[in-house]
Amino acid sequence: MERPNAWNAYDEEALAKLEETARDYRDFLDNGKTERECARRAIEMAKARGYRDLNDLVREGTALKPGDKVYANCMDKAVMLFLLGSQPLERGLNLLGAHIDAPRVDLKQNPLYEEGGMVYADTHYYGGIKKYQWVALPLALHGVVAKKDGTLVDLCIGEDEKDPVVGISDLLIHLAQDQMTKKLSEGVEAENLDIILGGRPLAGEEKEPVKATLLQFLKEEYDIEEEDLISAEIEAVPAGKARDMGLDRSMILGYGHDDRVCAYASLRALFSLEGVPERSCCCLLVDKEEIGSVGATGMESRMLENALAELMALAGEGGNLPLRRALASSRMLSCDVSAGFDPLYASVFEKKNAAFLGRGVCFTKYTGSRGKAHANDANAEFMGRLRGIMDEAGVAWQTAELGKVDVGGGGTIAYICARYGMEVIDSGVPVLSMHAPWEIINKADLYEAVKGYAAFLGSP
Q1: Which residues, 6+ apart, have CB-to-CB distance to 401 below 8 Å?
Q2: Is the pTM for the entire model greater than 0.90?
Q3: Every domain of the chain and the residues it spans
Q4: What is the SS3 assignment for the chain?
Q5: Tens of pLDDT, residues 35-87
Q6: Distance of CA 120 to CAs 202, 294, 365, Å?
Q7: pLDDT at 418 over 90
């Protein structure tokens, strides 16, 4: 069954909405290149729409009622947004869950060293990357530096047109005879992904003069000492803005589509709801998915059930049993991107079970790898229900697997949330060049994801 191309159904009004969505999404990407920046932007968007801080409500003992809007901030790196419905929370929520971290290169805790007349930052890559894609590329530095006195210094270098950029050098082709015979995975070694930060010596400095120039810059511009970098989170990401791609402007080229495109679509869907929904709604934006959903801000933590427990207490539904019932009665779209079919690499796809760019939001019954290992494998009843919701709302949708059986695979947060007993299925936007510094999506798929997610949230 071949699904129709979504573009064929658009009239002028729909095209205008699609382009407005794309413009707003590009801005979201440009201002959210790290999980901290994404969380901050999501909270700003939520507060502008009347969402209140759960911590403030708990401290004040504020009673909650249907229609109330609440957000929970988890260490500035994960966010949960709740819209209370007319039904008791115990009857379950409709959840959208996406992640806001993305593959990148992180500075190590003790990063700086001088060699060959240049100063470098030692790095450790984050998530699944092809290391050779990150060399000879303009990079920007984003992050925070936590000082001993509790001061938090925000850092962003390389995004403004007047800023310098940094980067990782590659071996020139003239001397790369041995390198060119290696496997792609070995052509660039992880310990060689070190970032060039400068090359000018400080006058009068005899020991590590180039490093001294850098330290002088950090002190003057940010009041940062070298030791402060021990308690810093600094990420190197591709420098530059997301751009329309294709001469017809049908696509978007940008860093971090995986999974900020689904995070954005989830936020926009939640904010589009009018009035009081029947079932309470939640938009869950988490960290650490690219490295296994670990840590206090990853889905393996208890942040969802902790926030929901506080919410239910304020709504007069406190207690462990009502909380367990609420989680088990919930339904969730694990909003994560899918691998878009690429004709140039068709051999790794099974075509009739692949996601095509331009054919709408994608539902993936199971991810995992080989024999569905670590997959959620949603039940047929839930898939049937979603088909009805999408068709009734006029949403363009498709289904897919993540490549051929035994070729590869991947995972999402779906199986983690399913532990609560809730119904969960993966749903997202098809992406080309996934996990590359610059990824590609189709605007129509983003637009249909927003529509589909909104229809799901509003379903009884």
Answers
A1: 350, 353, 354, 364, 366
A2: yes
A3: 6-102+255-457, 105-238
A4: CCCCCHHHHCCHHHHHHHHHHHHHHHHHHHCCCCHHHHHHHHHHHHHHCCCEEHHHHHHHCCCCCCCCEEEEEECCCEEEEEECCCCCHHHCEEEEEEECCCCEEEEEEEEEEEECCEEEEEEEEECCCCHHHHCCCCEEEEEEEECCCCCEEEEEECCCCCCCCEECCCCCHHHCCCHHHCCHHHHCCHHHCCEEEECCCCCCCCCCHHHHHHHHHHHHHHCCCHHHHHHEEEEEEECCCCEEECCCCCEEEECCHHHHHHHHHHHHHHHHCCCCCCCEEEEEEECCHHHCCCCCCCCCCCHHHHHHHHHHHHCCCCCHHHHHHHHHCCEEEEECCEEECCHHHHHHCCHHHCECCCCCEEEECCCEECCCECCCCCCHHHHHHHHHHHHHCCCCEEECCCCCCCCCEECCCHHHHHHHCCEEEEEECEEECCCCCCEEEEHHHHHHHHHHHHHHHCCC
A5: 999 999 999 999 999 999 999 999 999 999 999 999 999 999 999 999 999 99
A6: 15, 29, 45
A7: yes
- What's the full length of the chain, in residues? 460
Beta-sheet strands, E only, within 7-157: 52-53, 69-74, 78-83, 93-99, 104-115, 118-126, 139-146, 152-157
Residue 225 tokens, joined: 């000492």
Mean pLDDT, residues 281-304 taken together: 97
The answer to whether the beta carbons of residues 310 and 58 sit under 8 Å apart is yes
Across 115-124, 195-204, 366-375, least confident range:
366-375
Structure tokens at 111: 């990063």
User: Is CATH 3.40.630.10 correct for 6-102+255-457?
Assistant: yes
- The half-sphere exposure of 41 on its side-chain side, counting CA atoms within 13 A, is 21
Q: What is the mean pLDDT of the segment spanning 392-399?
A: 98
Architecture of the domain whose range is 105-238: Roll (2.30)
